[in-house]
């Protein structure tokens, strides 16, 4: 579609405005009338009309000669108006044969005479014709001057149609200065008059011209509005030729506006209109518009029939260049449809045509198309052959610019083959040539490819040099994020190479500077996090958490709730792992449980529960663990932790159910069996407790578990199985005579033997070495006989 002003009015600028005869009268008819004319005025007028008719059939020599004869007759008979008219028609003949200098001289003579005789109508008419010459010779200022005088005359004469027409010419003249605002004003004045006169054809023409002006002024919205209105009017007038032409123009305008669906609808309308006019078969570009728009809209199946139709047209014409081009389009359509076999056929036809035409450059390019499709079919060796052949041709014809690109292509194929050595080789060759060519952007791409391969090969030492090269290139661009990422990459490499943390931190600090310059708060927060991680991995937890806390504060200010939650979790977990449960809780409690998925909510509820557990806040722990169980129904850890909490709350039946659930999920978890045994012991189901404890001890393969021996010992005492209890006591004494477990066991044995004083002595010793579980002593059946003893009460008071 064209983007220049169409000068709709110009073809009629040089036509005669006489109303003696219709402009379409035949030359012979005029000649016949001329033979019968008697008056000089009639003869001169008919001769000028004949001049016009000769000009209509493009016989400008006869047109000029006939008007010259009319001038001679006028001069001979001193017919002043005849002289003025004859000069004008002579000017018309010269103007229509594009001899504008001569035309202007003749128009000037006509203008002078018409001014002398005060023929205002003809003065205005000649001025408009002179304006046309000025426009054609790009003397727009002179054209405007002539038109303004002509408009002023017509305004005095009240001739609205001529005024409207001349405003149109003035719009064209201003557009060529260029003065777009004045051009628009002139066309709008023309439009207003034509609308008043209800001349729809002219209204449509002016809307078309307005659209051109708006488009030249990059006002696509108003260009579309006016062209759309021109189309609507031509449609109402049933002017199919104009309608079809404007439809094609709208195809282009809507495409520029990125409204491809509407563009396609007008392409289809244009096709229908030209078909009705019987011209569609001679206009393959209509099919090309529809094909390309369907392709751009990813309607590949719809694009294919039009491409195939174009193929048939170009084959019939024997137009090899167009055949090659349309085969590219067909190949690309099949490629998008993932029909790689037909894609290859189309590209091969294209390749063969370029070979026949001897077009080595395009032939070499076609081999790359073929290579890409072979790559899609995973025929990588064939793809390598094709690219190598294209490379040889490019070297032969001296196309140096494309050679590094082909090295890139080869490297990419070798990447697909997992042949990193060859991939590195060709990317390196490409980089070397890009450096010679000074192609900074392409150097950058090649460097990034090399870095990626070196990372994959874990060749971190080599990576450093290329990352530094990448940094040098990025500093010459405005790619701040990529520059910072390079520093971060170097920090990661330093970590992989086990370089001192100072080096890792230095790289992160360089990245931080870039982010600070770019005022990128989110990335600054990410840097603080990474630096904190460096310290934490180096066991400098305090410094690490301090930096994580800075990252947290920035994320909070940015209201980045998901990342805030992640940091709260991580910082809280660090404190929890270091048994700093109060600090852990202060972070966990800030966690927003209203966002994230069910797993996130479940895990945080569990962490809150466990933290409260270690702080001895068992009811709070239980509440959170109950919530965790809702979200993590299939996680045995939740039930295990809740079971432990229920034990602390002495709700052993409920705890037993949770440990049963754990065993149902993980059949070989010894800790679940231990705690199940403990609950059974507390529920005084001693026989079952012994069985579960035996199972635990067999599974854990721990023969020094003092706690387990003590529980089983107490169960045996309660079951009156003294010998077995005595055996466990001996086992405890062998393991450690002075541990609280052994001392409590001795106390139990003394209590059931009736030696209360010895029992209390052993309990007191246990307290002295750290035993503090008063509940265990008060609720143990074997110590019930000590309840009334004053000394026993004193010992209990020393425990929690």
From TrEMBL:
Entry-linked SUPFAM superfamilies: TPR-like
Keyword terms of this UniProt record: Coiled coil, Signal, TPR repeat
Residues making up the signal peptide according to the UniProt record: 1-22
UniProt keyword annotation of Signal present: yes
Pfam families assigned to the protein according to its UniProt record, in alphabetical order: TPR_12, TPR_16, TPR_8
TPR repeats (start-end): 84-117, 164-197, 204-237, 404-437, 636-669
Coiled-coil parts of chain: 210-240
NCBIfam families: TPR_END_plus
Protein name (record): Tfp pilus assembly protein PilF
Organism field: Thermoflexibacter ruber
